[in-house]
Amino acid sequence: MKRFMLIPFLLFACFSIAACGDSEDVPPIPNPMETPQQPDDDNSDTSVSDRGGRYLVLYVSRTSNTERVAQLIQKTLDGDILEVEPETPYEDNYNAMLERAQAELEAIRRGDYPPVKTSVESFDDYDVIFVGYPIWYGSMATPMHSFLHAHAAKLAGKRVALFATSGSSGISTSVDEARALCPDATLISQPLLLTSSSLSQMESRVWAWLESIGAGREEPGTPETTSMKIDITAGDRTITATIEENAAGRDFLSRLPLEVTLEDYNNTTEKIFYPSPAFSVEGVTRGCAPAPGDITIYAPWGNVAIFCKSWPYSKELIKIGRIDGNGIEALNVREDIRVKIKKQ
With 70 as the cut, is the pLDDT of residue 135 above it? Predict the structure, then answer.
């Protein structure tokens, strides 16, 4: 774990936070958190009503936050999923992206919608359309503006459920925008908003929301217990591991599948990588003396460390799992390793 150069790093971090603000899907919003407003007009509904519906999940995501929420909804409901993409991809440079987002929002207010390359011929096969997007400057992300504007007639009579991710601002403005863009669609009156402070509870929040609006699989049956087993593939070899039943372990599982480079650290004492954002460690017991095969988080830095050798007790290490059997041998080499990690 890279524990040196602490003071320069902290100084750099302070200046970075002051300059860039939030690092989520969204540009920084100067306004305080808004309270989602409950619509009181005719084109709203309190729930999906009939379980066993056919679902389509549409989403826009500049980074991966909204995409992760969309994928969880799609997987939970066993529906279809489609990313709404701008005709011209957004710049990697954050400031350039902010300038473009502002310009596009101003153009939309003048009735000029930026082109998107995603289209749907018909929504007839679906009972409910889930529409997800990041909040940009308090508004719905511009590609979803354009998509809904272009497909308003096709969405007439359809039930639409909104979900969004945000650094700190609320969802109510974007709900009003969706209602104006699709006046003949029926909006489910309870949207879902996940801010940067609640993304670590994504799974539980999404499941509770779907339950509250009455969405479910065609044959829900007995709820399945989430498997805590994972596969780690390096080259042509796959090893298995068991993840701990704690907040950090569940957050780890919610990010899968992942493809990361495990950096060799301290003469193959451990293999490390830095998840972004860091896994939630709130309420998780700290402190362990790792043995070969233990999967841990070093709390001060947020990096995951898979130990290839024993290490003395550290109060800052959090154990989140363990590689099964002798599988650690596959990682015990003096080089960085590219791996794919997925749930079993």
Answer: yes
Measured CA to CA in angstroms, residue 162 lies from 78, 173, 241, 264 at distances of 18, 12, 36, 43
The set of residues, in sequence order, having a beta carbon less than 8 Å from that of 166 and lying 6+ positions away, is: 24, 25, 26, 29, 134, 135, 193, 194, 195, 196
Which segments of the chain belong to CATH 3.40.50.360? 21-212
Tell me the pLDDT tens digit for each residue of 238-277: 999 999 888 888 889 999 999 999 999 999 999 999 999 8
Choice between 43 and 232, residue whose per-residue pLDDT is larger: 232
| Coil, helix or strand at residue 123 | coil
Start-to-end CA distance of the chain, whole Å, equals 28
- Specify the fold of 21-212: Rossmann fold (3.40.50)
CATH architecture, range 229-343: Beta Barrel (2.40)
Tell me: the pLDDT tens digits for 161-197? 999 999 888 999 999 999 999 999 999 988 999 988 8
The kind and range of the H/E element at 103 are helix 94-109
Q: Structure tokens of 88?
A: 């011209």
Which stretch of DSSP H or E encloses residue 252?
Answer: helix 247-255
